[in-house]
């Protein structure tokens, strides 16, 4: 090490004419933004006016809002809405990934199947699909297992297999999967083709390459729009009445408002719950995004502990030595 | 580096010391109407280090990628260790292999890319462990021990838990070499391994490759580093316009090129 520092001393000595060493960073006068403050104050005033007015306005009927917000029927409906959202999104995401991978597959059969599925489920309104699912038991009164056109081995009455809740979950989930498939496909396309190549060159098959290398990287791109889809799904569950499934938040609050002859307070109740659930889901999204940002975030050993600091000092010397070695070698290379 | 006389073209068996590691016979490759490889014939012997040089677009990278079937040859025969790559010959015709069989062939051929292509969501250690555990079914503990050993060999034992984004280009490429070595390949392919590196980082990667060459590894290296070719390679192949223009001992080809095109190219890069 003393050798290399001796070698370095031969290079120009520390700059002489530099300005005198300053003590700490210089104080800089920050740019002011007076208009921001003006606009903020105006906005706050407007909001205050609205809130004070709303608090006194009879039509909002805050007493009823307070009465029904934690009504057992309403909290149960919120639970059902959340359950519908979670279950149908699970179907949507899992099936969406499968469909997207099928569309990227080199197998033309898988590709076409995925394409036709997307064509049908994206091409018809979800409301229409839900009505169809509601009529499933009317169209197919029993579900049979066996050889077609022969006496079935087993036969289940459709009505017993699927109630309105599960038909809603299936209807929402299958429709969602078509949209998720496109989101996942965008994620897959965002991964550098070199990744696929590197995995292939290591002897990994197509499926393993997708699962271990491409999909985990695609997740970073997939999660933000998926969060969007979850929140959108939370609200689409209000269409469950088409099946008809009537225990979710919107239909349930509508039913109550019919009882008390005033729709407005229960709309507020429903909105409060939708907002609350959305907020919880957003927290979940935050943690998921963090999980899949591995390798792009901070160093694993971040935090300048004393050990790290001393280590990096050693490394600096090593780099300097390595630089010198490389320089020497290249000098001898006659290039 | 095993000394051996050129093997007669006989019925080859994998692992036979007399069979060349790579044998290309009249290999051609077209992308649409664009013929990028024209009738390439060459051999890489066991333990030999062969450097492919030439201007960009000369087909050297394409040829390298044909060796592990990342590209399919359009005609000709390309065999690694006596086995045709990606095809089986029966009844005078070539039959496509199942992707699983091709994957199996690739396990024995390590490849290092110009842009490293490390898996960014895995640490250096996980990158090196991935293929042994996932492809060979090695236990985590065994794979980890071996991976740490390989990382130490490329001088990165301390960087095992770093993600690629936190490593310099030279360090990433050394991890990539360790990753390829983890599969215990019998042949290593290098596709311009130093072209994407800052000049001061080139040396550390070339040093690792030199060490590897000393252990007797068979290597095919596409490179612009003439110093490396002269010092390490046993054979230098100059390609231009999809054909092999000149082949020989690096020192001789570089000092005294026989063809006009070789001369023109070398006068620009040396």
From TrEMBL, chain A:
Q: What top-level branch of life does the organism fall under? A: Bacteria
Main localisation: membrane
Q: Which UniProt keywords apply?
A: Amino-acid transport, Cell membrane, Membrane, Transmembrane, Transmembrane helix, Transport
Domain ABC transmembrane type-1 positions: 78-285
Query: Which residues are listed as membrane-spanning?
Result: 37-56, 76-102, 114-140, 160-179, 264-288
Cellular compartments annotated: Cell membrane
PROSITE patterns, sorted: ABC_TM1
Instruction: Tell me the InterPro entries matching this sequence.
Output: AA_ABC_transptr_permease_3TM (IPR010065), ArtM/GltK/GlnP/TcyL/YhdX-like (IPR043429), MetI-like (IPR000515), MetI-like_sf (IPR035906)
- Keyword Membrane carried by entry: yes
Q: Membrane topology for this entry? A: Multi-pass membrane protein
**Does the record carry Transport as a key word?**
yes
Its family? Answer: Belongs to the binding-protein-dependent transport system permease family.
Name of the protein in its database record? Amino acid ABC transporter permease
Organism equals: Agromyces soli
**Upper taxonomic lineage:** Bacteria, Bacillati, Actinomycetota, Actinomycetes, Micrococcales
